[in-house]
Amino acid sequence: MDVVTEYLHMASKLIVGLIGVIIVIRLLGKKEMAQVTLLDFVYALVLGGVIKDAMYDPTVTIPNMIFVLAIWSVLIYLFEKVTQKSGAIRHVVKGKPVTLIKEGKLLYHKMENLNLEIEELGQLLRVEGIFSLREVNYVMFENSGQLTVLKKQSEQNQPLDTPSYTLIGDGKVIGYQLEELDRDKNWLESALAGIGKQIGDIYYAEWNYEKGWHIQDYDGRMYDFDE
To answer: Where, by residue number, does the polypeptide cross the bilayer (predicted)?
Structure first.
């Protein structure tokens, strides 16, 4: 096989691969990127591996490639149909939404099961325009990794003009937030002593210039007070 023929062969494989990608996208239905699940990612990962190997392996012919892509497309189609019909299988394979905050309280064990840290949750909430957990009544973590948020009625008409600082997350002091406030650990410990708590007792603590402290301990008790 001369060089020109080899490159034409690779180009043909690339075209076949592109057609395969389009077919898989059509099989998965119209989804926004935010709706893509882990299973969709696996589909794409395997498909990418098949196309890559076929591109650079001269022993793989175009008929071989078409056969593999056809089998993979059929498997995806059948698997999607099975998961649509069976709720139990769908929940096992694709997961289901998880409640992270209920009635204003962080559900520690749900967060732990997802390996989701307080700071990560805070980042996701800020994307939704929420800068304090005191604003939130319910939070659902969707299969796509996005959050569905229901704010407290009492907070909807009283938006904060200043951000809240997360000073304790998962029982640990978040040092850079203290530095931004120009405060130290002694100040933090003094505030906690006022409610009879130590840093290790606290799952989450935030402070805001307007509203003061919003704290939850590992037993689920909430504390809201001014400095």
So the answer is: 12-29, 61-79
pLDDT in tens, 91-136: 666 678 899 999 999 999 999 998 999 999 999 999 888 889 999 9
pTM of the shown model: 0.68
Residues 136 and 178 in one domain: yes
Last residue of a domain, one of 94, 127, 152: 94
Considering its fold, how many domains does the chain have in total? 2
Q: What's the rounded Cα separation, in Å, for the pair 137 and 124?
A: 15
Whether residue 207 is found in the same domain as residue 219: yes
Range of the domain at 217: 98-225
78 confidence band (pLDDT: 50, 70, 90)? confident
Q: Looking at the structure, tell me whether residues 130 and 85 fall in a common domain.
A: no
Residue at a domain's end among 94, 120, 141: 94
Are residues 61 and 170 located together in one domain of the fold?
A: no
DSSP code string of the chain: --HHHHHHHHHHHHHHHHHHHHHHHHHH-S--GGG--HHHHHHHHHHHHHHHHHHH-TTS-HHHHHHHHHHHHHHHHHHHHHHHH-HHHHHHHH---EEEEETTEE-HHHHHHTT--HHHHHHHHHHTT---GGGEEEEEE-TTS-EEEEE-HHHHTS--SS--EEEEETTEE-HHHHHHHT--HHHHHHHHHTTT--GGGEEEEEEETTTEEEEEETT--EEEE--
